[in-house]
Write a structure and sequence with these properties.
Radius of gyration: 19 Å
Structural class: alpha/beta
Strand order of the largest sheet: 3-2-1-4-5-6-11
Strand content: 15-25%
Number of helices: 9
Distance between the termini: 37 Å
Amino acid sequence: MSRYLVTGGAGYIGSVVASRLLAAGHRVTVLDDLATGLSEAVPEGADFVRGGVAQAAALLDTGYAGVLHFAASSQVAESVGDPEKYWRNNVAGSLELITTMRRAGVRTLVFSSTAAVYGEPEQVPIVEDARTAPTSPYGATKLAVDHLITGEAAAHGLAAVSLRYFNVAGAHGGHGERHDPESHLIPLILQVALGQRPHIDVHGDDYPTRDGTCVRDYIHVADLAEAHLLALDAARPGEHLICNLGNGEGFTVREVIDSVRRVTGRTIPERVRPRRPGDPAVLVASAARAHDRLGWRPTRTDLDSIVADAWAFAQGATA
C-alpha cells in the first residue's frame, strides 16, 4: 500500500481517480481549493485538505509515493478572455508543485494533460509525436507544463507520465460531471433531456464529416482512471512518458445527440449555429503508445453505455 497526493481530487476526473486508488488499497490525500471542485465529490476514505498547490509544501514528505496532478483551470473560452489566470494557475502552480516535490523527495508524477495541445491536427488519428500548436491559452499552458516536466525529468530524475485526454465522459461510483458553467457536449445534451435548457446548439453542420458535424473521440472516465494507476507503475526515473488516451474512433455531434435520445427516450431539439473558431473537424486519438507502454486498453467504448452512465448520474444529481 502506498500513499498518494491527488491535487484537484474534488473535481470530476480527480475524484474518480482518487476513488480508484482507494479501491486498490492505497492511502489518498486530496488537495483541492474547491474553486471548481465539490467537497462532496471527495471519496470516502480519503484525507481532504482544502487549499491550492501552495499547501503541498506542508503535506509532502518521503511518505508519499507520488503525486497525481489534476488541479488546473480548464475552460477554453475563459482562457481566451483571461489568459493571465491560466498561466498563473496552470503553469506557475505546477512549477511550485514540482519544486516542492523535489525538495520533499517525492519523485513520481502523473500529470493531467490534454489533446488541446495539438490544436488543428495535420492528420488523424493523432499520435504523441504530432506537431503541437495549441489554439487557446488553456492548451498552451498545458503544453508549457509538459515541457517543464520534461526538463525536470532530465535534470533531476523525476519519474513522470503525462496523459493527454481527448473527450472524457460518463460517470463512475457516484462521481460525474458537474461543471459550472458546463461546456462539455454530453452533459449539455442531458440538460436538454432534463428540461434545464430548451435545445442543444450544434456549432456547424457543414464540416467534411459523415453528417457534417464535428467528430470527437469519447473515453469513459473509469477507463481514464485506470490509465492513471497503470501510469504510476510505468513511471521511470529520468523519463517523461507522454501518452494519448482515447478510444481511437470518433462520433459526430449528431451521433452523440441520437445516443442521448435512445438512452433517455426524450426529445432533444437542435439549433444549428455557426462554426466556432478553432474547432477542428475531427479529433481522434491514437492510443497505441498507452497500449504498449502502460498496458492500457479501454473496455467501456460503447457510446450508449457511456451516455447511460452519465444519464444515471445526471438524474441523481438533480433529484
